[in-house]
Structure formats: C-alpha cells, structure tokens
Design brief:
By secondary structure, the protein is α+β, with helices and mostly antiparallel strands. Helices cover about 35% and strands about 20% of the residues. Strands 1, 2, 3, 4, 5 and 6 form a 6-stranded antiparallel beta sheet that branches. A two-stranded antiparallel ribbon has the order 7-8. The longest helix has 17 residues.
Length: about 250
Amino acid sequence: MGSSSLGEYIMAFNNFSHEDFEGFAYLDYNNLAVSWNIARGSFLSPSELPSSEYNQSFLSVAMAGMLSNTTPERLYSELAIDKVRETFFPKCVSRLRGFFVFDEIESISRFWNCNTWGGHFSDNYLSDVGVAATRSTRVDSNWISQIVDIDGRLKHDWFENTLKYWKGDEFPSSDPIWERIVEGYLTVWSPDIRKNAVLEINAVWPQSMKLLAYSCLCAAYGSPDGMIFPYLMRDNNNNPQLTYISRMV
C-alpha cells in the first residue's frame, strides 16, 4: 500500500458521514453566548448555515467556550492545529468550527479519572446530548496535552503529535479518550443545564427574555434564527479577536 493510499485509508477510517447518536458534551452555561444557545435547547455548527451566509470566520460555540477560559496564545495554537488539518487532512472536521462530543461511556469515564484540562471541563457543565451529525471526525483527545502546554502555547514537538492526532492514532501511553468533532446539530437533553443557562441569561441580561423565547421557538421549528454564532475578526493591528453575532433572517 502506497503512502497516499495509506493516508486515504486512515482518513476514511477516522471520518464519518451522516449519523445520529447519543453523547456527552461540556456546555459552559456561565458563558453568555454559549448559554444562549444552550437555553434554546438545540444548536448547530456554522457549516449548517446556508452557503450564502457561511464563511471560514465562523467558530463553533464549543471552541468559543474553550477560548474564553484560556490565554490568547491558545487561539494561535488552535489556528496552527487547524492549519495542519487543512493542509494534510482536509476531510477531517475542524476543531474551530465543529463541536466536541464524547460518544462512548468508557471514554467519558476515563476522562473523569484524569481530568486536568481545567477551564469549562467541569462536572457542572456536563450534559447528555443528542447528535445529528452531518459529518464527524473521531480522535484521541489525549494528544492535545502533547500539542499544547498549560499556558496555551505549542510544545516543541507539536507538529508531529498533531499529525498523529488528526490521523486518529491512539495515544501510546494511556487508554484512549475518544472524542468526536462534529458538524451538524446538537440537542441538549439535560434539563438542569438548560435551566442554569436560562438563569444565567436572566441574571446578566433580563431585558432579553422575550427575545430568548422567540429564539427557542425558532429552534423548536428547526430554524437557526436567534442562535448566536462566534465570529473571528481582525482588529486594526490585524490581530484576531472574537466577537458574537446573532442570526436574524
């Protein structure tokens, strides 16, 4: 088998087409933009927007929630990780625009036993979810600690480990913690998570409750109207900065 055939085999094995499955996700209801989408009960990745609206500057709420609890260096690291994906594994789903879901109880159990990720990876934020994936990529999340250091900067051997991550290799020195990066739709099944999200919004932005009710009705109808999307822009010095926009069509 030639190197190109091997690459195609690995990519085919590691990537999935349309699929419905149950899973677990960490949803940060203390982040206002994330909590808004949680309160809707259902949200989608930017890839599901109409093609006339979508571009590469959109981020997923999962990535926005992660970046809100980290240093600016983590954003630069994520951009570098995604560049490797784009160059060598274009069929894999981007970490920047997909949402993260544990798709098996064994992996989430291993994560509980060794959770050192910090940030929004707290038991308070763990929810059971329903996933309607348009496409997804399955990776061993153990590799991330070998790619990014505790300060969010890339480690010395980050590139080689990033290649192994996107290939879908198992991490060699511990049991795998499989995670799906998903493009598609996610339904929040945990009533406690949704309730906490509504309470957070009401505490911070009580004037928005009627708008939130409208947004929830749109979600129930299957419309992305009222959903908040993170959007990556450039400031006057060409540095990336994260902002949020609401889809109102």
